[in-house]
Each structure stands twice: as C-alpha cells, then as structure tokens.
Amino acid sequence: MRRFACRLLDTGPVLILAAIAGAGSFTHIRDTASQHGQAGWMSWAIAVCIDLTCVMAARERQRDKKTGRTQRGPLSWPVLVLTGGIILSLAANLAQADPTIWGWITAATPASAFLIAVSMLERRATRLEPSAPELAPVLTSTPVPELIPTQAPDEQGDALAPALVDYAQRVADEHHARHGKPITDDALRTRLGVSSQLATDLLRTLRTA
C-alpha cells in the first residue's frame, strides 16, 4: 500500500498535467476542425485521432528502443508519425491564437505540455518495466565433435546420436528465442560445424520430433 501511494504521488502530477493539457489541445483542434467544415462529431473524431496518434507514436518509439529494433533510414516510422502529429496539433492550436507573440505562445502551451507529459510517462514506464532475462548461451565448450559423425546418417547406415539431436535442439531453441523465427539449415550447419547434409537431416529430425 505504501509503495502504491509513493508511486501515485510520483506519477499523479504528470497524469493531471497530461489530462488538463490534453483537454486544452483537444479543444483547440476540435474548434479548428469545426471552423473548416468538419462540424459535429467529425470535429471530435479529428481531435481524438491527432492526440491519440501522438500518444501511440511515442509509445511505439519507446518500444523500439526497448527491443533494440533498428531503423531503416534517418528516421523511424514512429518518429515520422509523432512529428506529423505534433505539427498538426501545434498548427491547430496556433490557428486559435491571437496574431501576437503571446497569443501564439499561450495557444501552443496546451499541445506542448501534453506532449511533454506523454513523453515523461513513457520514459517512466520504460524504466519501471522489467527487462527481459538474458538467454543462457549454448556452451560452445561442450565436446560436440565427439557426438557429431563425419558423414550423414544414410551414408553410415546409423541413426543420429540422441546426444547430437539434443544439442541441435538446444541450438534451435536458442535461435528461435533470440530471433523469433526457426533456425535454417545454413545457420544450424554453421553453429554445429557439420556438413550441409547432416544439418538438413538434423533439422528434419527436430521438425518431426
């Protein structure tokens, strides 16, 4: 209970800021949409879409950092979406401002405060989430060469050694856990240091097991 109270006191002000700033930004966007032909529920829908797009893009950007997903090009897709949402939100807020410096500053304050609050919440959520446990690496010091025959099973007339199949299963499981997809013949051949035919036979055995 005490821990919950401390966490509430820590995140409460940021949540209040996000709610108030979001409401102000939402109102400016809705009014701008209404003044440009999007009356009724459509103006509300536009305001919701812009604000939630910013929240979603900020969350996706933090998830990419956590999972280590690499971006293709100078900017990732979440960053581009977030940038577009910020531009639309600020433009709608500034459209409601008096044509003065202070008018623009005060009109842009709700949108800016809302985005800052969202970024703070995402930053804290990322820090509080437990990191994924590191996978135990397959011990390369295991005396695998003693378990691996130099020829394929059909060339020897013998079945695959159970210890070799177990070791190949561990390698395949680790590859799937790390990369999210089954191991290929070439990857298994490289990890075990065996021939292509033996790697194919091992992979076939694992798939039918």
TrEMBL record:
InterPro entries: DUF2637. The keyword Transmembrane applies. The chain crosses the membrane at residues 12-29, 41-58, 79-95, 101-121. Keywords: Membrane, Transmembrane, Transmembrane helix. This is SpdA protein. It comes from [Actinomadura] parvosata subsp. kistnae. The lineage of its organism: Bacteria, Bacillati, Actinomycetota, Actinomycetes, Streptosporangiales.
